[in-house]
Amino acid sequence: MPLYLDYRPSTFEEVIGNEATVSTIKNNMLGEDPPHSIILNGPSGCGKTTLGRIISSELGCKIDSLDFVELDIAQLTGVDTARTIRQNMSFLPNESDCRVWLLDEFHKASSAFQNAMLKALEDTPKHCYFIICTTELGKIIKTVQTRCSKFKVELLEPRYMNELIDWVLKGEEFEIANEVIDEIVEVADGCPREALVILDQIIDLEPEAMLEAITQSETNREVKELCQAMLKEEDWHSLRKILKGLKGTEPERTRRAITGYVQAVALNNPGKADRCAYIYDCFRDSVIHNGMPGISFAAHGTTL
Known about the structure:
alpha/beta, Rossmann fold, 5 strands, 2 domains, 304 residues, 53% helix, globular, 9% strand, single chain, 15 helices
C-alpha cells in the first residue's frame, strides 16, 4: 500500500499541522449540536478528505460501512446524483450512529446539482451529515455556502513537513540524508500527500540516486499539470505560469513526457482524443536543438 495511505491519520490527534483548524472543527463537530453540513476548503493534497473521514468517524459513522458514502462529484455532477442522495437521506443508519456523505471535488458540480442539493443541506435529518471538500470555494454557489459551516485547510509549513517525513521514516525503520529530506520538503511545497508520494518513489534507491529521482518527480508533476491545462484549453496566461516551473528541466525528455501523457489520455478517454491529437501535433517535432523555447511555443500553439 502507498505510504500516503499507510500513514493516513485516522484521529484528530494524528493530524500534523493545521492545529487551529483541527481545534475549531473538534469544538464544532463534537459539541452538543454539531452542524450537519460543512465545507472543507483548501489546496489539493492538503488533507481535506482525510479530515472529512476523521470527522465522520468521530460523529459515529463507520467508514467501512454502508452508512459512509464518499462521492467524487467531478464524475457525478448530474441532478440524478442529488436526487439519489435526497431519497437515501430518509433511511436510518445500518451499523452506525449516523450517515455521512463526503462529497469530494464539489467545485466541479454543475449549478443544477448544487441547486438540487439545497433542500438536503438546509433540512438535514438528525442522523445525516454532509462534508463537502473543495479546492475552489468561489465555484460553490452562495446559497450552498450559506447553508454550511466553512473550515479552511492549509498546506503545511516546512517544520510540519519535516515532522511528517520523520514520523514516516521511523515507522518504516529507514534513514535518509537530511539534504534529501530538505529537497522533498521543497519540492512538495507544503503538500503532505506529494511528500509521501515522492518518498515512496525514492525510498528503495541508492542514496546518490535519490536527489536525481526527486528532481525527475518534480518535472513529472509539472508536466502533468501542463498537460491537464492544455487539455482543458486554458489560455496562455495560465500555461506560462506552469512553464516557468519547468525551467531547468531537460526539454526533449519533457516533450516526450507530454506526448506520452496525451497518448495515454486519448487511449483511455476517446472523447478527448481529438484534443489530444491536436496537442500531440503541437509537440510532434523534437526540441533537441531549440530547447525550452520549443516547449514554450508548442504550448502556446495549443491556445490558438
